[in-house]
Amino acid sequence: MIVNNNKLSNLYSFGIRSQSHSRRIKLQYEEDKEEDEEGGDLVTKKEGFGGATCWRCREIIHMYHRYCYTCTICSSSCDDKKVFSLHKFCGELPPRLEKTLHRHPLIQQLAPAYNCICQICESSDMYPETQMFYKCDDCFNFYIDVKCALEVGKNIIYHPSHPHLLICSIPKPILCLCSACGKEHKGIFYQCSTTCGGFTIHTECAFLPHKLLIQQRTHGSFYHTHPLTILYSFPREDQKAKHFPRCRVCGDDFYRREDLWSYKCDKCLYYVHLNCVRVPPRADLSKTIKNYEDVDHPGLLHLPFPDETYSLPKHYLFFQQTTNDDDHHHKIKVDDRLTHKSHQHPLILVDHGQTSFSSSNSLLLIKCHDPMEKTQLLCNACLRPIMSTMPFYKCPHQSCNDFALHEWCTRLPPIIQNHPGHPQHTLNFIFSNDLPFFFGVFNCKVCYLHCNGFVYGCVGCEYYVDVTCGFIPKEITHKAHPNHLLSLVQTKGIGRNSCHICLGSIYKRGLSFLCITCGIVIHPECALLLAETVRHKYDEHPMQLSYLPIENHKSEYFCEICEEDLNPHQSFYHCQSCAQSIHTACAPSILKSETHDDCYLAKGVNDFVNIKFGGIFNTSHHQHPLSFAQGIASDGKCKRCPERLQYSMIFKCLKCNFSIHYHCL
Q: What is the Cα 258 distance to its own chain's centre?
C-alpha cells in the first residue's frame, strides 16, 4: 500500500531529505513462504526486503521484522542495497517520546550543527542522511540519537518458529538456555512476548539462514550437494516416517529433543543437528582420520568381501595359500579324486567347469550356483555358493548329486586353538552329521544363526561354531565405518545397543566388532556375511551394499522382493542404474512368499544363510518321506502347532499337503 498523507507528513517531518522519497514511500509486507521441498539444487536469495539496510538506523532489515518502507522510484531503478528503505518502526517514530528512561519528554529535532553526544551510547556519530536527534527541552544538552530511541521497536520480530511475537527485553548479553539449539550460552536473546514464556532463542540462532550448504565431508560419507532447509522441530511421528534418521555429522539421533532445530534435505533423507552445522570440520577429525598404521597390522582383513562366494576359509586357505605358492614357486597338489570322511562316495574334482573323468552321468549336467537363473549349489562345509569359476569337489552319484565342497574346504585344519570366543579349550573339527542335533542343525555361538555345515566345537562345553566363525579374526576394517580399526570384543559391557550396519540389537552375549575410538559396534554376521555386491534375478546389474540413503533418490524406498517398506538408514542393496533396492535379509530370496512376513523383524543377514536345504526324512507322523525346506506363504500353517510356516525351517511332503515346523517334529 502507499502511505497516507498523515504518515507522509510524519515521515517528511522526521527528516527525510529527498522530496521524491516522501511522495513515493510504500509499505512492504513480507509473508511467510512455504519452502519447496522439491525445489532446485541452488541456494537462491530470498525474495522480498530481507537484507536491505535501513537509512535511518543503518542496521539490516531482516525478513522477521515483517514490514518496511521502501521508495518505489529507487526500487525500480537502483540496486537492492541502494534502495531507500526504512524499518517500519523507524519510519513511524513519533515526534514526541513521553515514556522513556529520561524523566522529561523528548522532542524530535534536527541535530545541531556542532557535535553532540548521545546520553545512552555516548557516541557522537552523526548520520548525514537523517540528521535527527531526540532532545530534552528541560535539560541542557541532553540528546538521544535515533538509533538508541529505536531499540524497543527494533527488538520485536515475527519468527516462523513461534506463533507469538518475540521481543528482546534485555538488550544486553545474558546467560540463558536457547530453545533452538538446546545449549546454554551468553548473548542477546529473544523471548516470547506472552505471559506463558518459556521460549528463548539466541540472536545467532534467530537469524540463521533458511537454506545453506554443507560442503565438508560428513562422517566419512559423500559431499552433500543439495541445499539444506532449516527445520524448527522434528516430531517423533515425523522421525518415525523417516525411519528415525541420525545426524550425518555426529551420528547421534534426534528423538531425545523433538523441539530442537535442525537442517534437512528430504531428497536424500539427510539430517543434521543445528549445532553440527556450525562445528568446524576439524572438530570431527577423529571420525574420519585413519586411526591405525598398516605396518602394525599385517594381514588385516578388509571387509566386506567382494561378493557372496568369498568367505574366511577361502580367504585364509585359498588366497593366502596362492600368494605363498607364488612366493615359493610351487603349488599344492590337488587330486582329481578325493575320499572325504564327510561323505560315503568318492568326490570328483571340477575346475572351471571341467573334469578329467569322462562320464555321461549327472556330474556333467549339474549347474553351479547362479542367482540369475535361480540355480543354487552350496558348499556343504561353509555353505557359501559354488561357482563354475572355482575348483570344487562333487559327488557324481545321482542320489546325492547336490553334495559339493570347495577345494579349500577339503583342507580345513583339524583343530583351532585360542579361539576368541572359547580360548580355554581347543575346538575340534566335527562333521554336522556327527553332532547330537536333529538333522545336523545347530546354533553357532558367534553369529547365533542356524547352521548345518561343518563345525568347530568343544563337546564338553557344548560350544559350537560354523567354519566361517571358526576363523573369525581379532581385528578388521569395514567400509561401513571406514578408516577405523574394529576389534573383536565380548559384547558384555558395550554401551551401544544396536549394530551400525543392520540397526539390530546388540545382545549381552557373545562377540562383536567394536571401534574403540567411536564406540561403533557391528555384528559378526553383518561384517562377515554381507557381501559388497550381490546378483539377483530382479536386476540385470550387480547390486551394491549401501550404508546410507542414496543421494538424490527419486522416490520412496521399498524392497523389490518382499514389496515392503525399506529403511534406508539400515544397510540395503541398491542398483544405481535401475534405482531398485532390496533388504539385505531378502537378498537370498527370489519370491515374496519366501521372505519374512514382517520386514521389520528381518534385519541384517537372512536367517537361513547358513542352512543348506534338501535331504529326506522319514517319520511316523506321515506316510510319505518329508523334504527339508524353507517354508513359504503357500505352505500355510503347521500341522502340529497353529503358527504359520512362512520363513521357517520346515519338513514338507511333496506328494500331499502336509508341512510341519522343524522344531515341531
A: 18
